[in-house]
Amino acid sequence: MATENRSADGIVELDVRPQLRAGEEPFSIIMETFDRLQPGETFVLHAIMKPAPLIPLLEGKGYRAACEQLADDHWKVTFVPKNQ
């Protein structure tokens, strides 16, 4: 199950590594979480690989992406509104 955490400082984190490891497609969970963002909130996604197709999609929605590979199977992608 995906884990979503919302902090008081405007950061929403979503970990979809369990779904990906189970062979499930988490795109709908990712987009549902993204669509619930409040103006100015940052979206942090944890995945087992770099979500290359997702990056230009969310950049087209007004966010910029920063990717970090934390382990062989752990990527952290931070999407920040371009106006910040």
Automatic annotation (TrEMBL):
DUF2249 domain residues are: 13-80
Domain of life, per lineage: Bacteria
Which Pfam families does its entry note? DUF2249 (PF10006)
Which protein is depicted?
DUF2249 domain-containing protein
Organism for this UniProt entry: Paenibacillus haidiansis
